[in-house]
């Protein structure tokens, strides 16, 4: 994970500019997320510079927004004006929170860039309350257009850590195979297809 942190630390100052081209898709995503987090206690993993957290915090009761990159968290804290939003550096594989602490967990555009994403899902399940919701939007690169594949190739050359390449339905299948019921999904138009997935824990 150290190499991943180095990549995101190096690019923290440029991240918001890089994401501007996908603003329309993110606005759609915020609109989908706000009703789910209304008056809820939320944990966001891989928050980056806090784009999602800052756009939905007014709807939530409280948000703990975390990232493995200290530089990303510094950027996120810079213009945080909400007392309901707290940023901290955390490892999504070893979270410091008690079992069943949160109503909602958000992990956006992260499961495809970490090794062993199923282990991250196990840790999410641990900290999520019974009946809680996982919101896991992810860029789904596989089966993408030729231009998208070219972009992905150059991102990889630049050191972008891409571990999993899913098509949209493959990604939803991955979530189901790891014990989640997908109750809502949508593919949003962005630089790469952005598969929005809203899940609940399956009963065991």
TrEMBL record:
<feature type="domain" description="Methyltransferase type 11">
    <location>
        <begin position="43"/>
        <end position="135"/>
    </location>
</feature>
<keyword id="KW-0808">Transferase</keyword>
<keyword id="KW-0489">Methyltransferase</keyword>
<dbReference type="GO" id="GO:0032259">
    <property type="term" value="P:methylation"/>
</dbReference>
<dbReference type="Pfam" id="PF08241">
    <property type="entry name" value="Methyltransf_11"/>
</dbReference>
<dbReference type="InterPro" id="IPR013216">
    <property type="entry name" value="Methyltransf_11"/>
</dbReference>
<dbReference type="InterPro" id="IPR029063">
    <property type="entry name" value="SAM-dependent_MTases_sf"/>
</dbReference>
<protein>
    <submittedName>
        <fullName>Class I SAM-dependent methyltransferase</fullName>
    </submittedName>
</protein>
<dbReference type="GO" id="GO:0008757">
    <property type="term" value="F:S-adenosylmethionine-dependent methyltransferase activity"/>
</dbReference>
